[in-house]
Protein 1
Amino acid sequence: MERIYIFDTTLRDGEQSPGASMSIEQKYEMAVQLARLGVDAIEAGFPVSSPRQFEACRMIARKVTGPAITALARSVEKDLEAAYESIKEAERKRIHTFIASSPIHMKHKLKKDPEAVLEMACQAVRWARQRVEEVEFSPEDATRSELSFLCRLVEKTIEAGATVINIPDTVGYAVPEEFGAFILKLMEGVPNIDKAVLSVHCHNDLGLAVANSVAAVKNGARQVEVTVNGIGERAGNASLEEFVMALNVRHDLLPYTTGVDTRQIYHSSRLLSNIIGFPIPRNKPIVGENAFAHESGIHQDGVIKHRATYEIMTPEDVGRDASTLVLGRHSGKHGFRRRLEELGLILSDENLDAAYQHFLDLADRKKEVYDDDLYVIVRDQIGEHLDTYELTYFNFQSGNMAVPTATVRIKTEDRILEEAATGDGPVDAMINAIDRAIGISAKLLEYNVHAITPGRQAIGEVSVTVQIKEGRYIGRGASTDIVEASARAYLNAVNRFKTAAK
Ligand code: KIV
Ligand code: ZN
């Protein structure tokens, strides 16, 4: 079986999803998990674009071992310099440089002719190759480029030192048969193609990103660029879990392997969802709530008689274990830590102590603590000390004869802010009080609430989408008290706005 290299761009293209920005520490947490998952390369960010991006790449390069730590750069020296500086301490490092090669991008965006583009690309690759062993080159919008120019560009950049050539379907325009044939033409039309690994990077605008990636592999691509949960620009990128499991389940037609430990898939998906605040759609393949649920009587009967009647893979294959009931108020710290470790949730000693306190508080309010509750506790723990605003006290009054009123106390780095306000209901009053305290007014666009675990004492999770200035931010908050969960979700969205602004 041939090996396919998995290049994960969750922390770069994925982070470009509207509302998905992550703090430096959150990117690092996710990178640690990606290494545990077994990807071959982690694209850690686009360092020239902001100090936060640069620092995140540097931290990941310093601390994460195993995968090649990659930074993105346009084909200009300022970008290349930042990319190199940010990853130079990595055990394995790669610079990924790109320039657009389609007529529409060259004419309208770059305002350059093809010869100038070719020259810039070769210069960038040479610059990078003088500093690092692994250099990846991407002709952006490759699928809408002229094939003869693309072949020449690829040939020349390999001559200049590129070790990986990545073919992006930047706008998600390709369809599988066509894309497979396109990859084959490149394999046949570039004389030195065997000197580099051919890679693909597919966007999901038509819902074909995974299918296109599979078609490319069948025609010679040996690296595939993916993101966890398929996040990325617009409709996203090819999803890691779907692509890897397609190879895994269909060995008969797709005789390829990857280095991914599929048992880490579910946890990676949950961790990302918690970090960026995007819920996983229930019907999402592999990781969605319903992906292994059988509703109709006929299906249930079939699965009981023989699991394979309606299941092409098992939940255990992707790290979804049947056991969900975990701990109660009498569970010790040791048992708590062990269960977190079984879920792949590794915390520093300091975070573990605080998370354990959180757990005891919760166990006091609610008899049974489930795995899903633990994910929430850990998410709050990782996120809390990074937040600009922390809700430390609240009080609200409401009733059918009273004007809903709320008081909040919010801690910032150097101050305690306290305010009170009224509203249409207790949630509205809380949000008004928060707005007054922090002096930011966000427009609430969406508000959803659902119970995370069963029972009347369940944790309720609120997710909100708010608009602040031009941006949209998603926030999540959880508590056994829905009004508190709402206030936390709102503040979480505001904290994301603050992180994105850094
Ligand atoms: O979609 C794209 O073209 C990209 C490149 C930078 C690889 O993300
Ligand atoms: Zn992309």
Protein 2
Amino acid sequence: MGFRDDFVWGAATSAYQIEGAVNEDGKGVTIWDEFCRQSGKILNGENAATACDHYHRYKEDIALMKEMGIPAYRFSIDWARVLPEGTGTVNEAGIRFYDNLVNALLEAGIEPYMTLYHWELPIALERRGGWMNPEIVEWFGDYAALIAERFSDRVTHFFTINEPQCFVGLGYLTGGHAPGMKRSLSDTLLMAHNVLKAHGRAVQRLREKAKRPIEVGYAPTCGGVYPESEKPEDIEAARRSYFSIPEDGNWTWNVPWWSDPVLLGHYPKEGLERFEAYMPAVTDADMKLISEPIDFYGQNIYNGWCVRAGKDGEPETVERYTGFPRTACGWPITPEVLRWAPRFLYERYKKPIYITENGISCRDVISLDGKVHDPQRIDFTARYLRELRKAADDGADIRGYFYWSLIDNFEWSEGYSQRFGLVYVDYRNQQRIPKDSAEWYRQVIQTNGEYI
Ligand code: FCB
């Protein structure tokens, strides 16, 4: 048992977090460009104008991946780099950048996994109503068609949308991310519906224009849930809790609202009842579009909470003990989540699963010896991967794992304060230093996970 022989080992990034070159070669302005310009939005007043300068250094970054023996790379396209206005005229210089990137990856023997939307909406579309405007379904569909036309001769694996929970919840409900709005429940439910329809339309248009057979997936997120024990009642309580919708706070932070429509063709009943008065009009045709079949299911999983069956049998959250382990950004370290969440997802949605993101931010520094020692990252990843292997042993169809991130990068409103990379970036001079974890991951990959 253990990981499949063809298990996909990868590393992930996203366009806005690494590329820089925000004003170069005809790239259009995005909501993140504008958000970074507003004072007080990004920690220390930082921005992504240069980020990791990957736009000019992609060859070096690919060479690093090759040295690490990483066989798969998940990255995203900046919509406004290829379509500056979001629709209409194509920016050939932007296409050329991704062409060069894809070609260099393939030359290095690295399989590209391309994400269409990792949060930087072209500002021109935001001004036309963005995700509130139902026309976005076709805007996104046309963008997907362009991507298939230009890249599907070489790229086989596509993801439509990354973490709708975050860009709707943080961007338009709590306001901590671009474009920094606090909209109503009914507005965000309408946006969510348009996001889901846009996903479905992109699946259709990708397939319609594909030059070869392609595989299409989706990459949502959410905290996971794991049971306190292996008693059936605790497992059931954890499962129920994982697929429920929070009663207060940020409603977007859940799995079923974003995944049941895509995989099961309907919204979860619990949410429909709670949100009844705020729901947009939903037609059968919408649900058919949203549930356009996909090939695999991606989930970004960083941590989760522990649940047991309470005295009344209802799920009860187990409190974290004093001094509970946490990452540099304060996220709890909960390896068990990588056993149980994928298993629950596989049971419910019955699709092959990729862990499309998982990783840790550490207070990495360059040591006296010039190296970056990150034992905590190695320990974190080993613990999580051991649990993921158990999920595979339990029978879940786990196809791959993408460590977040290949390199340190611009962590959205946290600026450059959080280092998630296997490779350290010295932002003073853009020097890359593979951390100890890079060599460790190389061995994990080489032994197909035996090394952990
Ligand atoms: C995820 C995002 C990714 C990165 C990691 C740390 O929510 O998809 O861009 O910020 O968290």
